[in-house]
What we know:
By secondary structure, this protein is mostly helical. The protein contains 9 helices and no strands. The protein has helices at 6-18, 23-31, 46-65, 80-90, 95-122, 131-153, 158-172, 178-186, 193-225. Helix 6 (131-153) packs antiparallel against helix 9 (193-225). The longest helix has 33 residues, at 193-225. The relative contact order is 0.11.
Amino acid sequence: MAIPHPRDVQVAVVDWLDQRFPFTSTVDEALYQRVPNYANAFYYCFGGMVFILIAFQLLTGIFLSFYYVPDASSAAGDAPAYTSVLFIMNHVYLGWLVRGVHFWSANLLVVMVLLHMCRVFWTGSYRAPRELNWMVGVVMLLIVLLFSLTGYLLPWDTKAYWATSVTIQIAASAPVLGGLIQTVAQGGPTLGPGTLQRFFTIHVFILPALITLLMYVHFRLIRRHGISEPM
């Protein structure tokens, strides 16, 4: 029996998919679109960098979640959460690298989102009919900041504990809703195991789902209106 050529197998698989789902047209729509000449300027790449960094965050976060234990049953620095981070850094193969990529790409992500929004504002891309996409971008910026806030506590070391405590105290000073914000953030009257569990749930489940949905909406709106010309 002759071994089929890999290209023939690829064509057969694509044909099989096209008969059941508009695979080829969907891929063509997603990957092929004329880019205006003015979009070749370097400052138009910030949005793409944001997407790449978010992908890095999601992939490295999945790997870290295999080993991380969101348990703060002991004091900061002795809890299973802290020891699991040490295990990742010192014993898991390339764990130090994955955590380093996760940490530094998180910091770079905030910078790139701000640069991207500055570019959008400078080129007037927030004007009609793109104002809805601008609002989606603002919400995504807030989600990125929440990623940083919730992720900072997860190592459960002394620095993370007290830095988060200060952040929650600042939020608690807000008028009217300050007390409610503090209680919801802490998961109880004081910062403790409930806080870590709440921050972990928000960081690993809620925020990734929200930012993935908003990225889809963001890209669909870009497809709908195209890349705006500079003012």
